[in-house]
Amino acid sequence: MEATAEHGDFAKQHLVNPVLLRLLGDVRGRRVLDAGCGNGYFSRMLAARGAEVTGVEPAESVISFAREKAGAGVSYVQAELARLPALEPFDAVVCSMVLMAIPDWKPAMRACVEAVRPGGLFVFAIVHPAFEELFGTWRKYGEYRRKEYLAEYEIAGRDASDFHRPISAYLNELAALGCRLREVVEPGLDPAVAEGIESYVRMPNFLLVSAEAG
């Protein structure tokens, strides 16, 4: 956690964070919920840009680390994302790299949308459902290969599992929750910082979505 406490890992720094910040826009004076904040690095980045940030994270060890690092403009709440405590409506809710990692993603997305004031922003980032195993597959074959996309299934990882769902599942749930889609982003890595990771230059490993709450 210490190694990623400032800006996250390489992928967050170069692919995810810049897009999230652009989609959120000027956050000065705005109330922002960082839903599933992890070690809290993005909460602190937003606070440094003038936002009033609340970070939510269920894991005791992780939220304790985040609280130790918290500075002005940031507070952290220990809670399950699908069961948020009563909070005043936020101008924006950001949910970065969480929804694809939890089985109860629909209640979590609903909680995020319900935490946004009408007309506010809900922005989320996930591993791209079409390119989830991009690095390993490209390294093995020199191209990307996939056998199954439409089914929903668990992807076992070294530390935890992710859950594959097609893009339509996320976008249709947004629509069902009354959100208006604003932008979908599939970022590619700048060749100048790719360090030989050709797959991330040619194909997107992440999907970011911005929507306006109804």
Automatic annotation (TrEMBL):
Keywords: Methyltransferase, S-adenosyl-L-methionine, Transferase
Pfam families in alphabetical order: Methyltransf_11
GO biological process: methylation
Residue ranges occupied by any Methyltransferase type domain in the UniProt entry: 33-124
Domain of life assignment: Bacteria
Transmembrane segments: none
GO molecular function, one term: S-adenosylmethionine-dependent methyltransferase activity
Alphabetical list of InterPro entries matching this protein: Methyltransf_11, SAM-dependent_MTases_sf
Protein name: Class I SAM-dependent methyltransferase
